Amino acid sequence: MGLGLGLVRRAGGMTENHFHTPFGDYRLQRLPARRRELLRAWDAADEYLLHHLAEQGLPSVGDRALLLNDSFGALATALHSCPLWSASDSLLAHEATRLNYQANGLAPENLRLLTSLEMPRKTPDLVIIKVPKTLALLEYQLHRLRPLLTPDTRILAAGMMKALPGAAWKKLESLLGPVQTFPGRKKAKLMEIRFDPGLAAPPNPWPTRYQLEGTPYHIINHANVFSREKLDIGTRFFLQHLPTGRGRETLLDLGCGNGVLALMALHHNPEAVVHCVDESFMAVASARATLKDALGPEVNAHFHVAHDLTGFSDQSVDRVLCNPPFHQQQVVGDHIARQMFRDARRVLRHGGELWVVGNRHLGYHKTLKRLFGNATLVASNRKFVILCATRA
Ligand SMILES: C[S@@+](CC[C@H](N)C(=O)[O-])C[C@H]1O[C@@H](n2cnc3c(N)ncnc32)[C@H](O)[C@@H]1O
């Protein structure tokens, strides 16, 4: 049965996801995989970009293309026949790209996946920017792009109107050069930018730092990290109630962002070993920089870019601290939080604890009770609760 938006429902409630493009038809999947997924692995901005490229006869034979922020590899899959770099801040985006290549029988030789902190060494002929919802990430990427560009580099940027940061157009113009805007199509916006090498651009401000109130420590923030300008109010509340002084224990900061929870957990318990885990390359780089800057290069901490805890053995951790995300890209929901709680339960030793901060209305106590059989209220205020679930 056709559902519109490229979704095709098969018998049994599963969803097939066919991406029809001028460069071929592909079957695409999002990650993390969910049963009865109803969301597509691409959006109308991807379609707009690909149609525009095809109309323009791009990429030309042999063109090297650089993709920025391709969510699940939709653009990389469609453009697989040209040499591609694809840079993203999300490990899930990298894995979805690999998975979609494999599922469509595409050879990965032409594709180089780059983290958000990397750029190609050579000049690309074509740059395709999916404008991220975080303006700071776009700003950082444009700064990093500038030295690679020539006036001949074709630069396209696109995004869904509702997700485009208001000042994206201005950033493109002030850091790259004149922007030509095309008429909106299916609520997507497309722009072409002409690089002006004579433009006097300000210095790249990222990463930035702020002092953590009441401490001598600085929190270091790459452009795409959560709460990069100041302490999040939920995190602040969590910091006031962190478990303290428990001797040699293994702690996990799950969804570590800039590492502020790990830092203060180590501050309270210098005998602990901390693992910082996040699926964002910039988050893990920020956490590493924050902890090493605050506690020295020998700090008892390990850093993992990961979107689950498959790298950790069962029952290997004493305590997990978690301020879970409530959205993945544009999609709001608690599916990532639930996966984090399940993973935490598996890696916790018997008697180990998962400490969670969350908005009251998210109802995490119910999820934790279901999974752990218990959930104790550690503290609450008008907006947040801190819960502790013990692994039986
Ligand atoms: C609400 S922020 C908390 C950041 C930090 N702990 C704090 O309190 O400031 C949630 C973090 O979870 C990360 N995240 C999202 N999905 C994830 C996943 N599947 N695995 C690990 N981390 C994830 C995000 O990148 C983000 O840094």
Give an account of the 3D structure.
This protein has helices at 44-55, 74-78, 91-103, 135-145, 168-175, 233-239, 260-268, 281-295, 335-347, 364-372, and strands spanning 7-9, 15-21, 24-27, 65-68, 84-88, 111-115, 126-130, 154-160, 179-185, 188-193, 208-211, 218-221, 250-254, 273-278, 301-305, 317-322, 327-328, 331-332, 348-359, 376-380, 384-390. Strands 6-5-4-7-8-10-9 form a seven-stranded mixed beta sheet. α7 packs parallel to α8 (281-295) and α9 packs parallel to α10. It has ten helices and 21 strands. Helices cover 26% and strands 28% of the residues. It binds S-adenosylmethionine (SAM). The site of S-adenosylmethionine has 18 residues, from α7 and β14.
Brief overview, please?
With 392 residues, the protein is of the alpha/beta class. The chain contains ten helices and 21 strands.
List cofactors, ions and other ligands.
Answer: S-adenosylmethionine
DSSP summary, beta strand count:
21
Question: What does the overall shape look like?
Answer: globular
Architecture of the largest domain, CATH level 2?
Answer: 3-Layer(aba) Sandwich
Strand order, sheet with most strands: 6-5-4-7-8-10-9
Alpha-carbon distance between the two ends: 46 Å
Number of domains: 2
Which percent band covers the strand fraction? Answer: 25-35%
CATH superfamily of the largest domain: Vaccinia Virus protein VP39
Category from helices, strands and their pairing: alpha/beta
